[in-house]
Amino acid sequence: MFNRFIQKSTDYLILKLLKLDPSNRKITNPEERRKIAYLESWVSIIGNVVLAAIKLILGFVMNSISLIADAVHTASDVLTSAVVLLGFKFSAAPPDEKHPYGHGRIEFLASLLIALMLIFVGFEFGKSSYERFLANEKVAGSILVAVFMLASAVFKEWMSRFSIELGNKISAGALIADAWHHRTDAIASVLVAVAIIFSKYGYYRIDAVFGFLVSALIVYTGGTMAYDSCSKLIGEMWEEEMVRKVKEAALSFPGVIDVHKVFIHDYGAYKEISLHVVMDSTLNFYEAHELSEKIERLIEERIHCRATVHGEPARTV
């Protein structure tokens, strides 16, 4: 039910704010991808600022150190969302003399930076859990504070899944990494609520034990994302599905016998494709050149990638 709500609310925001078709599950158009990333960033920034302000006000009204500390943690998530926003903004810069293929890989750098920040948060989680375990002290706070913490966690989990949904839609690791920052905030709120409740029954270390487990998960997730970002910066093997689409587009033209040596170079939103196309040997030079241009245009229309076709005549026996 919660997942369905995530899907519906995400589609509603895409339709109403961006005027895009929410049924499109894989968006490759650079401009549309950028709009989706901006939507995630601004929803995250506004959501975190509002939630942090509410926590801070209630923290002072209720004299709750737990709420005030959690407000600071929530406010810090604004930084990661700002990295996403700036990353996509700079990655949209046009090609220049030094960067003829554009600046799309700044996306991967943004994802790497957020992943490293996530690892740092994980270690901080572990450190605070260790200190709380040694202190073995009662956590101050009322049941009302605990209830608000849990409500806050539900909202942050919505933000996390919202970011994941958009990240999957545009295949952006930076958005997935940002989602995990939302999730760590949700987990932190749950742990504080658990600590408050269990402290009233004398179980002072239970949240510290949970904190250790959660910190390990966060560090592992951040490490995985950092590895994935580095792998993309170095250059990964292209997806078979995209190769299939390229071949399918080329083979849809009469006169094309075979397609091979398909190479895809990933520059974030921009991708460069080169392919060898075996053509009917009866085609003259002009016809072969015209066919190559038609194939390139179709690939660019379907996949939003720049394509370069190398034509080869079919061998005759």
From TrEMBL:
InterPro entries: Cation_efflux (IPR002524), Cation_efflux_CTD (IPR027470), Cation_efflux_CTD_sf (IPR036837), Cation_efflux_TM (IPR058533), Cation_efflux_TMD_sf (IPR027469), CDF_Transporter (IPR050291). PANTHER family: MITOCHONDRIAL METAL TRANSPORTER 1-RELATED. Residues 42-234 form the Cation efflux protein transmembrane domain. It is a multi-pass membrane protein. Belongs to the cation diffusion facilitator (CDF) transporter (TC 2.A.4) family. It is found in: Membrane. Residues 239-313 form the Cation efflux protein cytoplasmic domain. It comes from Fervidicola ferrireducens. Gene3D superfamilies: Cation efflux protein transmembrane domain, Cation efflux protein, cytoplasmic domain. It comes from the Bacteria. This is Putative cation efflux system protein. GO terms for molecular function: monoatomic cation transmembrane transporter activity. GO terms for cellular component: membrane. Pfam families: Cation_efflux (PF01545), ZT_dimer (PF16916). SUPFAM superfamilies: Cation efflux protein cytoplasmic domain-like, Cation efflux protein transmembrane domain-like. Its main location: membrane. The keyword Transport applies. The chain crosses the membrane at residues 42-61, 108-126, 138-155, 186-203, 209-227. Keywords: Membrane, Transmembrane, Transmembrane helix, Transport.
